[in-house]
Amino acid sequence: MRIDLHAHSTASDGTDTPAELVRNAAAAGLDVVALTDHDTVGGHAEAIAAVPRGLTLVTGAELSCRLDGIGLHMLAYLFDPAEPELFRERELVRDDRVPRARAMVGTLQELGVPITWEQVARIAGDGSVGRPHIATAMVEAGVVASVSDAFTPQWLADGGRAYARKHELDPFEAIRLVKAAGGVTVFAHPLALKRGQCVPEAAIAELAAAGLDGVEVDHMDHDPATRARLRGLAGELGLLTTGSSDYHGSRKTCRLGEFTTDPEIYGEITRRATGAFPVPGAGGRDRTGA
């Protein structure tokens, strides 16, 4: 089985619609794909309706968190999207994205970057607006060569010249809320240093003690040495290890299925979840038996 547990659609900052995402996942030879848009489940219904035969969809979200001033992302899988507390927190994060994005656009304009809020809003469309949409506008304006090039201290990285904060969850609270909603938590790209400052390994141990289920190890922003280091840490802490593409369509260079998760790990994730269940495509079934 080929299992990719981290992908984004136009519901947040990807370029594939949810329906296109699941069709492209099947075309890429995946057996399982997770839809994990930022702080929203807005793409779930469309993706569920479009899951093709032979593919299984895992519903989820990537939650924006902050610990001791350091931003981090928490992948949440198979939770009940209607659970009131988690729903309320997702809404707070999502609602804060627009004023935050407007503030960053304003700062960039002050720095001489020729982009507008209307341009960023057009790029975001109906999605949950975020830094990748601003970065895309910067690419269109010829300021940077790629979306990744905008995520530097000079521009949009955490603490960068044009960075602005938004409402973010405490990761310990995120774990509690996701568990209360029957879901499973995996710390996304925890040592992706190219994205900015990362939380120390001691903090990962504290999150594990608080109920964190796993860490995303095999990811394009982790080099081989980092993956080995994370895999060893996960073994010490009893954490599951996942692999994922973090696919964003044409907005980033990663491909669906570029990194994958072991079927046994996927099976354990589905066994731990009680808030929702994987969705097999028409005529298919979840081959873990979950």
Description:
By secondary structure, the protein is an alpha/beta fold. The protein has helices at 18-27, 44-50, 84-110, 117-124, 131-140, 147-150, 171-180, 201-209, 224-237, 263-272; strands spanning 3-7, 32-35, 56-67, 70-77, 184-187, 214-218, 240-243, 279-280. Helices cover 38% and strands 15% of the residues. Strands 1, 2, 3, 4, 5, 6, 7 and 8 form an 8-stranded mixed sheet that branches. Helix 1 crosses helix 2 and helix 4 crosses helix 5. The radius of gyration is 18 Å and the shape is globular. The model is unreliable at 283-290 (pLDDT under 50).
Helix proportion of residues, in percent?
A: 25-40%
Number of strands: 8
How confident overall, as mean pLDDT? 94
Tally of helical segments = 10
The residue ranges in which pLDDT falls below 50 over 5 or more consecutive positions are 283-290
Q: Structural class of the secondary elements? A: alpha/beta
Distance between the amino and carboxyl termini:
14 Å
Order of helices and strands: EHEHEEHHHHHEHEHEHE
Beta-strand percentage range: 15-25%
Rg, alpha carbons: 18 Å
Largest sheet, in brief, is: 8 strands, mixed
- Could you say which overall geometry the principal axes of the C-alpha atoms support? globular
Observed structural traits:
globular; single chain; 290 residues; eight-stranded mixed beta sheet; alpha/beta; 10 helices
Could you give the topology of this structure?
Elements: E1 3-7, H1 18-27, E2 32-35, H2 44-50, E3 56-67, E4 70-77, H3 84-110, H4 117-124, H5 131-140, H6 147-150, H7 171-180, E5 184-187, H8 201-209, E6 214-218, H9 224-237, E7 240-243, H10 263-272, E8 279-280
Parallel strand pairs: 1-2, 2-3, 5-6, 6-7
Antiparallel strand pairs: 3-4, 3-8, 4-5
